[in-house]
Design a protein that fits this description.
Distance between the termini: 35 Å
Keywords: Signal
Number of helices: 1
Strand content: under 5%
Low-confidence stretches: none
Radius of gyration: 14 Å
Length: 39
Amino acid sequence: MAPLLSVIMSTLLVFLTRADKHGVKIVKHITGGSPKFTP
């Protein structure tokens, strides 16, 4: 439960403070699917 809560809280903090407008780099889009593994 704690990991989920920390993700929600940090997302809200970034959203409410508009941290991306103050130089904090954020991930805007994460592509779906699994990474390709090579042996």
